[in-house]
Amino acid sequence: MSTPEANEAAGTVGTLVVVSNRLPVDRVTGDDGVVTWRPSPGGLVTAMEPVVRDLGCVWVGWPGNVDEELAPFNVDSMELRPVSLDAQDFTEYYEGFSNDTIWPLYHDVISAPAYHREWWDRYVAVNRKFALAAAEAAEPGATVWVHDYQLQLVPAMLREARPDLIIGFFLHIPFPAAGLFSQLPWRRKVLEGMLGADVIGFQRVVDAANFRASVRRYVGAPSSGNVILLPERDGSEKRRVLAQDFPISIDANAFQTLAQSAKVRKRAREIRRELGNPKRIMLGVDRLDYTKGIRHRLKAFAEILRDGEVAASDITLVQVASPSRERVEAYRQLRDEIEITVSRINGDHGTIAHSPVMYLHQGVPREEMAALYLAADVLVVTSLRDGMNLVAKEYLACRSDEQGVLVLSEFTGAADELRRALLVNPHDIDGLKAAMLQALRMPPREQRQRMKALRKVVFRNDVARWSESFLRAVEAQAAQWRTNAAETDPALMVNDPVFLSPGLDSALLRLSAEQSILVACDFDGTLAPIVPRPDDARISPRAERALAALNEAPGVHVALISGRSIESLSATGVQLDEWIVAGSHGAELVGLPDAQLVTGAPSAEERGRLARLTEVLQGLVALTPGARLELKPYGCAVHVRQVSDSVVGDRLLAEAAAAVADMGEDASQIQSRTGKRVLEFSVRRASKGEVLGIIRAELPDATVLFVGDDDTDEEALQSLRPGDVGVRVGDAPTVAEYRVADPEAVAALLSRLVNVRTGHVIGSD
Ligand code: GDG
What we know:
Blueprint: H1 4-10, E1 17-22, E2 25-29, E3 35-39, H2 43-55, E4 57-62, E5 73-75, E6 78-82, H3 87-106, H4 117-137, E7 143-147, H5 154-161, E8 166-170, H6 178-181, H7 187-194, E9 199-202, H8 205-218, E10 223-224, E11 227-230, E12 239-245, H9 252-260, H10 262-274, E13 280-287, H11 294-306, E14 315-322, H12 329-349, E15 357-360, H13 366-375, E16 378-381, H14 390-398, E17 405-409, H15 414-417, E18 422-424, H16 429-441, H17 444-460, H18 463-482, H19 502-512, E19 517-521, H20 541-552, E20 556-561, H21 566-571, E21 580-583, E22 588-590, H22 604-622, E23 628-632, E24 635-639, H23 646-661, E25 671-675, E26 678-682, H24 688-698, E27 703-708, H25 713-718, E28 725-729, E29 738-740, H26 743-758
Parallel strand pairs: 1-4, 1-7, 4-6, 7-8, 8-9, 9-12, 13-14, 13-16, 14-15, 16-17, 17-18, 19-20, 19-27, 20-21, 27-28, 28-29
Antiparallel strand pairs: 2-3, 5-6, 10-11, 11-12, 21-22, 23-24, 24-26, 25-26
Bound molecules: GDP-alpha-D-glucose (GDG).
């Protein structure tokens, strides 16, 4: 059971209740007839297991056999509450409406969805059964986390039965575009069912956006950023629902540890040997499902062999296809087609000693999976549509040797994060063949570079972070609901003392719905109010909290781009560890996701020039009381803010400029920049615009918000592209489209972005 401490850490009240179609366990009957339960395979279970292991929970679900009434029982830290389904429930609710209506419809109608009214009726009835079981299991005020497409009506039913509960709903599969969703005869009822939740989580930004668009169209509820405002209906209160992406992940450390164990490593070597030591092993692991693109993969593989690009004797494609939904017609047909294709490939290209495709229509134990991941030179994921695809992430987590190549369909949720994989459109068989060949021939060095970057993503966004951010969002949303904040229009939701112009506010709303966002801010005068002594500058606490919340949000990166050196930024006490930080106007750069680009120390030539520059300026500055020379890794800055007579200060700046211009050959290599009461010289050419370009090259899909107050920020503002949002602080001339008055307004702006992106409120200090 959950401990109060653990629940408090997750922000939940009482014991967490998880509701999913299947209980996360399979029955095992021993030779002696004794029944035990073991965790079952599958995406949802793999993802939730580590969460539940740490927190404990009550789990409501179907145990897997029809017509069976079971009393609640415990497995490890879970109290399992079985929901019983009869044969007709199974046929109509599970195989029918869930897997033959919703599943194909939500996966872009790869297979035609069937619409039957009796299936729908049964879906409603079974959803009610689950809702009642959850209502019975939940303590007062508890958090209930409902999962997936089989239970879309449960949130509203549960809210009706137990208005005291806090409800989260997570959809593991894609949510289709409004044009497709509109086919569903019960579309409004399904939307209203999901809207019973306080937070609705999706895998991708586009899924959440599709959902909000359908809600707008069929429920008539507008949204502001990620927040949907439900109208009053039948005397019910106005409510706000957060519909946002929370990309799921895996317990990366657990997979890594498993793959590093001596037993699994030995087994990986054995697998290679048992396959006859082929030069290359390619692996596919999927539930046998038409969404996974297994046919496309086999077709491309067969053509590679046919074309003689790879000798059949040099390669084995291991295809694990775990049995799934075997009574649904589309799945039966698929199995037949795949098995015919596999035999054909082996018949055409195999020998007595070697079959190029090793096909396993069976579930394999987790250890064996890890060994397969380790043995595989290439993992191929060719889904035609996939909510996330955990297999891709598991492969990466296992490869601590930094070898192996991931070929990944761009139609998976995972492709949004795993940009350094070889991304493919599986419908384009020539493109897929080319990517497979590139993967098979990739030099170890490039494998390492890509694998390193990809593993960083998986380890950073692991499943603990996923569940934590989801549960935190549910809690935050419910807290506001309880304090009646729901009475307020979302556009005015944060009762902020600072007023943002309507134009800027809509730009933030638009930005908040982008897939990937880079929030880049200058420091002094933007995040930190200008103070007489630069050493005393401090980031405004509200801005810092807002940036931390943005950095935590999926798909958002935070960068600080300052004229200060990184050392001097650190000395102000701002926490830089988690952010991308460009110091000295971009001459220094750390924290990029790829971690390749960290600027090196100054060269000998730069050091010599810097010494000469410092000497010239020190002499001048010493003569003017109040003036200060700031030493930086790549230059120095003459500050005159504290020179009491501004004429004297200006004169010093002019003299400094003239003295540097007189430095002979060095002069042409020194870059100067004018700031607010400061003149800065640098021996390495850099600019905020250039460094913003370097950062965004690493985050090619990101839409940028840049905020700065200084003339040096104009270079960055000038480099913005259509769709980006540029904000200048203060009233100096600017190319930026928007303005705010001061750092307090910047903090309000960032808080607004947090609010519309995540639903969290960052109050004013
Ligand atoms: C749904 C969404 C989303 C599979 N065969 C065996 C086995 N597995 C494990 C894999 C992986 C999981 O099952 C499959 O997860 P996927 O994400 O690849 O796909 P779905 O089952 O379709 O899952 C999907 C997911 O939910 C989570 O939200 O990513 O998009 O469709 O963990 O390792 N595990 C073992 N033996 C097998 O034979 N031990």
